[in-house]
Amino acid sequence: MKDGPATGDVWDVIVVGSGAGGLTAASVAAAEGCSVLLLEQADVVGGTTAISGGMVWIPANHKAAAAQRADSLEAARTYLAATVPGQDRTRLEAFLAHGDDAIRDLEARTSLRLQPVLTYPDYYPNLPGATSGGRVLEPVPFDARALGEAFALVRNPLPEFMLLGGMMISRADIPHLRRVTRSLRAAWHVGKLLLKYGIQRLRARRGTTLYLGNALVARLLKSALDLGVTLRTEHAVERLVTDTQGRVCGLEIRDSAGQTKALQARRGVVLATGGISHDSELRSGYVPGSAGNLTATVSPGKAVCGARLARGIGGKLSDPTNDGAFWVPASTFTRSNGSRGVYPHTVTDRAKPGLIAVDSNGQRFVNEAVSYHEFVRAQLSNANSAIPAWLICDSRFLWKYGLGKIKPFTLAIKPDIDSGYLKRADTPEALAKLIDVSPSALQETIANFNRHAQTGHDPKFGRGGNIYQRSLGDAEQQPNPCVAPLKQAPYYAVAVYPADLGMSAGIVTDAHARVLAADGALVAGLYACGNDMASIMEGAYPGPGITLGPAITFGWLAGRQVADDRSRQN
Length: 570
Hints:
Blueprint: E1 10-16, H1 20-31, E2 36-40, E3 56-57, H2 62-66, H3 73-83, H4 89-109, E4 114-116, E5 136-139, E6 142-143, H5 174-178, H6 184-201, E7 209-210, H7 212-226, E8 230-233, E9 236-242, E10 248-254, E11 260-271, H8 280-283, H9 306-311, E12 325-334, E13 340-344, E14 355-358, H10 372-381, H11 383-386, E15 389-394, H12 395-401, H13 414-419, E16 423-425, H14 428-434, H15 439-453, H16 467-472, E17 491-503, E18 514-516, E19 522-528, H17 548-563
Parallel strand pairs: 1-2, 1-11, 2-8, 11-19
Antiparallel strand pairs: 3-5, 4-5, 6-7, 9-10, 10-11, 12-13, 12-17, 14-15, 15-17, 16-17, 18-19
Helix pairs in contact: 1-7, 1-17, 4-17, 14-15
């Protein structure tokens, strides 16, 4: 199928961006026999995928079926009809039709390996068609030694999500860590983890047992390299190039030395740069003004985002909306090396028993255990008082669960107090003064919450009222794993702001990931996937992995389509 081997700066396919979508597209195109060049503006690969939870949402997948977890495409359609606005059913149907095909094919031809998470419910479990688990897949843990020297190319996870300066842990390890001082079995489990990590650090710059998004990127990177994909890091694309018929036939890049060069793509270009999160001008057309500019995604540096590249040659972007982001509440801080940290409060603290979120009036405004997307929607609905919001807990909670960047069982919290990230006071009234809310209001809020929390109830918001919320709580806390009183001084608070985990708005494509122009015609030779592609979820967030599931599916479709593109100019 190749037009011939790549010669100099001529390739069959050029992929821009090395997150899940880009790595998948590159691997598939190479597996189909194409010469493939993968360009990444950073000096490492993986983008935002590498620092993510790595969850992949694929309804009615064969792995869940093998585990006797019933699901069907019809049930998924019913659920998505109840959660997604529904303006773009053609691409949604393409995702449902090809999601399982994509992971079957990738596991047959690459190093990608996924396993079902059987106890991770959809985010709206009471809606028709929802499941209690199995739709979301996670990468099988990966031994990074298999990458050899290429391990150095994998972007590190966020430092705040590693232990001991470089140790990743799995979701299954967390309960053992919480019980390490109360259970011999847990202590044995943690001891083995530490020994294994110590041995790994004798030979590697960080732990080599990878989980979550880091494992997903490492598996896809190995796949791409094994299939002969040429990877060039520190190469930023400046513009797309078209031929006399308007077909995309290549691009211009700026390399690490600042030199500009033209590259030719005989079959096409796939955009997977990560979306418009860092392009403040484009982003402002898709979020409320009160949302601010905070993002939890990886910075593209000075590189031009895919949306601008596509728009520059006539590609269409999403219509303006205020619902064009995937949201997470985030806290910010400065690391010891001077870099800015953004901590996404996804699932580690908000739903645990013994925490509340309050606005500037000192009052609760949301069920703290709802999804991160819904939490920020509540902030935006109460923008005058809930931006920022404050997560408040007592000393028992901080020690057992941590709060934001502060890990459980942390003794040295003084630096976080001195920096202003963590507020501490001996009484609710004193804490209220530190966070500039009414002392009497905060005292009353905590007293009212505690009164019902003693028996596991939350009459104001019904926290812990469905299986999704309870799955994020602490099963040891009964009768409600999400509810416990705040009563052990001192008290602590961290401010959280709306941040995007990626944008739902982006480049408009068809069901084969081909970029469309304003008039609906194809922009020949141009494809988009990942967060560059306008999301099929249309601003909704139905479940864990609804960005990476479509990224891999449409990356797979893009790789197949560009490899089979018969209209190319040789």
